[in-house]
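Quick question, first post here. What does this chain look like in 3D?
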Amino acid sequence: MEKIHGAKIVVIGGGTGSFVVLSGLKNYTTNLTALVSMADDGGSTGALRDELGVLPPGDVRQCLVALSHSPRVRDLFNYRFEEGSFAGHSFGNLFLAATERMTGNFRAGVALASEILNVTGRVEPITTNQVTLLLDDGEQVLRGEDTVDNGQFAPRPRIWLEPIPEVNPAAIVAIEQADVVVLAPGSLYESLGTILITPGVSKALANTSAKVVYVCNLVNKLGQTDDFFVHDYASELERIAGQTFIDYVIYNTNEPSDRLLELYATEGGRPVQVDIKTLKTAHYRAKGANLLADQVWQNPGGKVDRKAKQRTLIRHDPDAVARIIMKIYFS
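> Answer (accepted):
Ran it through. Tokens below.
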């Protein structure tokens, strides 16, 4: 499949999911925009956010690295210090924090990093102000994305952001002008939910002429989406958004190897199941394919990242996902 320079594709999400989708799509189009959640408050990102007052750089860094064509610079941005006062921090996070402080503008700092990394496309924060994720499941209120990410709660909770998010206008324009909008796999409430509840985003998704595609997760998350099927993920995203906006759902049809399942068993997660009958009656078109990476996939982050082991398990194959997205573009 040839690279289509004019295919305008927007990828929504954060962290590993966006990294995988962008890594695959950059080989097929040069017109990519990554819209990134700005609610992360854990690890190196959270420390920099608290200490320097900068917008969270971690997910932006991963998207920039995914879109880069400079291997050595990618390695540099992913390098993590293992000792001293910088222990746990990646160079890329520190660099983005520095460029924001230097320019006084996070978007300007990201643009500078994009130039240095020689990226295909661009990366846009979804909000321009500091926000905090809150979740209420009727019995408890969890505050902060890191707390939510590591917490357990009743299904289909209410989520919101404080203070009220100031949406990045460029993000809305990107959705409105796209040919395809992809919701990357990832945490429903932390990565995708925080974007969908940002003012103007869900309306833009519902009204865009673009084909809106959701790449479903491979594995359920213990204590959050334990018994979710593919269609449950799609319906939960639309419930959070308060809009019907999904045109296509891409899901995996291949069973992970016993070795990968054993590795994942420590987290208590099980592969997402498929109810073909329900998918056939949905308002969106469901497309199944073998989307599994054929080996244990190493997420960039470094061995001192406390989440590294969780992120080095069952993952989507970037090229397999990109190919099916491009087929939807041509359809």
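Confidence is low (pLDDT under 50) at residues 299-312.
The two ends are 14 Å apart (CA to CA).
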